[in-house]
Each structure stands twice: as C-alpha cells, then as structure tokens.
Specification:
The chain is mainly alpha-helical. The protein has two domains: 115 residues, no CATH class; 155 residues, Endonuclease III, domain 1, CATH 1.10.340. Helix 4 packs across helix 11. It starts with a helix and ends in a 28-residue tail after the last helix.
Amino acid sequence: MSLEPKILVKLVKESLENKSIDFEKEINSFGQIHAEKSRIHGKGFTLQEHIKGLVYSLLSRQRVWKSLLPHLKKIDSIFYFYAPEKLINADLEWLIEKIVEINCGNMLIEKQMKALSDNIKILKKLHSYIEMKINEIYKHHNDIIRGQNIVEDLANRLTDPKSEDKLKQVGNALIMEYFKNIGVRSMKPDTHILRICGRKRLGILESVEDENTNNSNLLRKAQKEFIDFVSKISENVPIDIVYYDNLFWLFGAKEYGEICTKKPKCYQCLLLKLCNYKQD
C-alpha cells in the first residue's frame, strides 16, 4: 500500500474519535490484551478458561458483541462456570433455552450446543498439549515467525476436517477468537478485518480480494500480511498484533465504529481519499 502505515492508523483512530468512540476503553473491555499480558508474565490458563474462551467465541458468531457484554455473568452461570464434567453431561435443550431466553443465541446455537460436549472432550484431551505449545510462544516472545508457526499448527489441528481433533462448528475465524480469549497473540480473519484491510479498501492485505473467503491458505497469508503491517507501526509487535486487530475491527463493527461496513459510511471516514473503495 502507498499510504504510510502510521498515518493510516492515525486516521483510523481520529475517525473513531470523531464518533466519540473511546477505542482504548473498548479494546481493554474485550480482555484479550490483558490475557496476552498475563501469558507474558507466566500465567497458564485452566481447562475451564479454555472452555470459557471457546464458548465466548461461539456465541460471538453472527452476533453483535456489544449486545452480549451485559449478559456475560449470566452466560457464565448458565454454562456452570465452565466446569467440564457438568457441561459434558448438560441438558442441551436447557442450555439452548436459557441462552435464547437472554437473547444471546445465534442462528447456529442449536448446532453449537450439540457439538459442545464433543468439543470439551477434545479440549480436555489436548489442554496440557495446547498449554505447552502456547508456552513455547512466550518462551521466545519476540520471535514473531516462530510464534506464528506454532499458532498455525495449533489452528490446523483444531480446524482441519481431516484432523481427529477437529472442533465442531469452529473455523478459521472462530479458532483465532478462541485463541485471543486465552491470551494467544493472533489476528482474527473475520469479515470486518478482511473487508477493511483487503485490496478493495485499505490494501493492507494484498492477498484478500473477497472478504468472505474461507480459503485457509489465503487466510493464513492474510494473517502474515497483517503482522507485517503491525511491524511497520509498532515497537512492541507481539502485544500490538491483538491491539491493532481489535482497532480495525472496531472501525467496522456494528454498535462500535460502524464506519467501514459492508456499505461504508465514507462521509465519516478520514481515509476517504486514500481508500480503494469504489462506490457502485
């Protein structure tokens, strides 16, 4: 991209500020930066925390995250505070009923809940292994390439349809959301990020033509491109991968920035003259 990366980020932040979006506060509210910093300081995450991270990622699918925030304590209670044996043996219809009752379901909630028991069994089996691999990332905290390779290997094991450890109802975007929830530095290649940063708009991700792509190879390449972009604007790349992922997500997400949406509000964007977007 021709635009200087630091200027681009400055304009994204100013566009959000013009809408009275306290992006620092919002990013901190997600808890993912805190989780990552906890990892850096040697914290390990329990099986219950892994299950919680997975459940939050599942519930976020096709949902406005801000609408879930007020209900997180109730969600924790409904899911027995993520006690594995209780959830493995839980009444699925009751879980679905209670989640829908507080308006925290989504179009796939029934399939997600039916898969929950099997997914918890996989996490239970792999918990020590996943923690060991994550610890490898933070033993070599500043080795971005090594860390990203470990993240990719874990993601492949948990999302590849041919893997015996494939998590059901979890694809490329949700696995990264789960990882971020348990303190793993990663970029989540969801629709917002692919749309905003892809070739048709800001051009940060040169490999992304279609924001709805589900090609795992292209998504892995996009993640590397995003990390390369962060390296041009940050002196603390390992931490700031998650920070900038969340910042650009806020720029497009409903009930947050809502600027660079599917039908963008270009009149609210300070990057209007610098963007590749062409109106129909």
